[in-house]
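We now fix the convention by which a protein and its fold are recorded. The integers have meaning only within a learned vocabulary of local backbone shapes. A complete example follows; check for yourself that the lines match position by position.
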Amino acid sequence: MISISREQFERLVHKALSDIPPDIRLSIQNVDIVVDNVASMNQIAGTGIENEMELLGLYEGIPITERYGYDMVLPDKITLFQKPIEAICDNQEQITEEISKTLIHEIAHHFGLDDNHLDQLERY
């Protein structure tokens, strides 16, 4: 396990976001991307995860594919959880890779892909 400062972690999140191809990045609509230490009990509810240290990221909102009459609403939210990501990594390179992987996974939820679909895609 490795621990880095919140500032370093947030810089890695911004870098991962900037590395996403522009056509995809520009299609992300009305979403805040934030960092928190661990998931709250409210965030864990309904995920099937019992331990907050097992949740690396979370998309909270209405996927683009399900939006209808979507106007004047608060932004959706993608949260990356720093402590669980650090807990599964041994160095900063692994943290960088896990941030990117988790961010892409949560952005995929924003575009309407569920975990089953993402699991199938990861097999290829």
